[in-house]
């Protein structure tokens, strides 16, 4: 499934402009390059002033860096968005049903739909959560689903992020900066707003408060602290919701309940939007050396005295080998055909798939099943012969740790680069909120590979971001 030519989201094969991009295309034709360059510099100043940085440690130099921002938005039509939203709602519903199932009756394993060893022997599956009931059976309250487009109606899910998806702050701030830079351009388009996300997130978290909660639930955001790469986002989201940003030492457990230290004395906490990995959450249950978490919080959680979002153990749904079974989950739990496609994936733990992958490394992308951020993967067409040979040895040594996918020609959008406006490859991460209802704002984080020909969009690997416009009908 290697595509020879990338799908151009703005321009049809004959050179005509797609309807969704017509207004933007005219604007680009009339706008001088020097003006765009000046606006890009203004954007950098705004992002720096707002403190919107991304921490990258271990590479030397200043670890606090701006994520490159492209001033040309990506545009989706209302019908394109509606199909995507329908598919995302279906997918996230099934993923939450899967998480509830594997931590309770394990019906999907008993039915042989997913191999038991793939779940029960997985490091992301936490036996400590077996039999634990969570409010509303919601495990992934905030899901970020990475998608790519390869054709007119071909949107593929690349991976699921059900543990601690990041990037929503950049979606919101990208929109804010674009509105400041180009108010006249916004006036010419009917663009769906995204600024209700903070309210929607708070409503979702409150809906998942423990059943015994009385009055308005107290929600906090739990961060590892200022040295975390996504600390800006933690602070930003706490501010958007109007709730406290706390670190582990700000919380304590007493009489089986969680409290926050305040200047007015202890305050009971009902819901914790935690941005700390499972391993560091409770030194009494997981890593005894962790100073980031709260001793005893797991006992309070298991007894239903506090809600943790996302749920402990939700990371099993992030696993790239589990990803291959999501279409089967949708059929098993919902009795429906998947609306969104998976990227065809080879499971290297299966002998036939491994043999095919080893024979075709030059054409495939190979990923670690627990990997993230673009690290640890092999992009076959861009790798040297020696790199492919070295990676093949890793595959042979631990095949269960890898999956492989065709090298998709990700769709392109017009992007402002040093040479002017040029197409660059993009992906997309919309955010899905699950409480009593499933909520989405019409937008998401578009990531763009700024280097010509590159398919790697991750910010930690040199990618940038764009504002994403969903047009109102």
UniProtKB/TrEMBL annotation:
InterPro entries: ATP-dep_Glu-Cys_Ligase-2 (IPR051680), CP_ATPgrasp_2 (IPR025841), UCP005522 (IPR016450). Pfam families: CP_ATPgrasp_2. Residues 73-449 form the Circularly permuted ATP-grasp type domain. It comes from the Bacteria. This is Circularly permuted type 2 ATP-grasp protein.
């Amino acid at each position: 499934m290697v595509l020879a030519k990338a799908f151009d989201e703005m321009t049809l094969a004959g050179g005509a402009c797609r309807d969704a991009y017509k207004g933007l295309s005219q604007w680009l034709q009339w706008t001088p390059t020097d003006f765009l360059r000046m606006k890009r510099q203004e954007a950098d100043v705004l992002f720096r002033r707002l403190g919107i940085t991304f921490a990258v440690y271990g590479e030397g130099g200043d670890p606090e860096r701006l994520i490159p921002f492209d001033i040309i938005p990506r545009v989706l039509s209302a019908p394109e968005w509606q199909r995507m939203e329908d598919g995302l709602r279906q997918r996230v519903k099934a993923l939450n049903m899967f998480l509830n199932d594997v931590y309770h009756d394990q019906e999907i394993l008993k039915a042989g739909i997913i191999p038991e060893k793939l779940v029960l022997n997985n490091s992301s599956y936490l036996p400590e959560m077996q039999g634990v009931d969570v409010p509303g059976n919601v495990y992934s309250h905030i899901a970020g689903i990475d998608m790519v487009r390869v054709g007119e109606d071909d949107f593929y899910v690349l991976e699921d992020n059900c543990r601690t998806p990041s990037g929503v702050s950049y979606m919101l701030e990208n929109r804010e900066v674009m509105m400041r830079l180009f108010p006249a351009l916004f006036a010419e388009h009917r663009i769906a707003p995204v600024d209700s996300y903070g309210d929607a997130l708070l409503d979702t978290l409150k809906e998942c408060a423990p059943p015994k909660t009385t009055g308005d639930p107290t929600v906090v955001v739990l961060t590892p602290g200022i040295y975390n790469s996504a600390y800006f986002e933690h602070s930003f989201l706490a501010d958007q919701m109007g709730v406290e940003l706390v670190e582990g030492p700000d919380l304590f457990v007493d009489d089986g309940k969680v409290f926050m230290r305040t200047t007015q004395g202890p305050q009971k906490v009902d819901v914790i939007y935690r941005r700390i990995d499972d391993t560091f959450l409770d030194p009494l249950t997981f890593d005894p050396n962790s100073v980031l978490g709260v001793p005893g919080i797991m006992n309070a959680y298991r007894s239903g005295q506090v809600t943790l979002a996302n749920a402990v153990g939700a990371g099993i749904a992030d696993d790239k080998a589990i990803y291959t079974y999501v279409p089967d989950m949708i059929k098993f739990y919902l009795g429906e055909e998947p609306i969104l496609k998976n990227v065809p994936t080879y499971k290297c733990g299966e002998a036939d798939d491994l043999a095919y992958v080893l024979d075709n490394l030059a054409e495939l992308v190979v990923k670690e099943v627990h990997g993230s951020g673009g690290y640890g993967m092999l992009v076959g067409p861009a790798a040297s012969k020696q790199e492919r040979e070295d990676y093949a040895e890793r595959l042979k040594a631990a095949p269960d740790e890898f999956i492989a996918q065709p090298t998709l020609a990700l769709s392109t959008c017009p992007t402002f680069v040093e040479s002017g406006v040029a197409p660059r490859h993009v992906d997309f991460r919309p955010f899905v909120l699950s409480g009593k209802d499933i909520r989405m704002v019409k937008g998401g984080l578009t990531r763009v590979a700024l280097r010509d020909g590159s398919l790697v969009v991750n910010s930690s690997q040199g990618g940038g971001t764009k504002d994403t416009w969903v047009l109102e009908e």
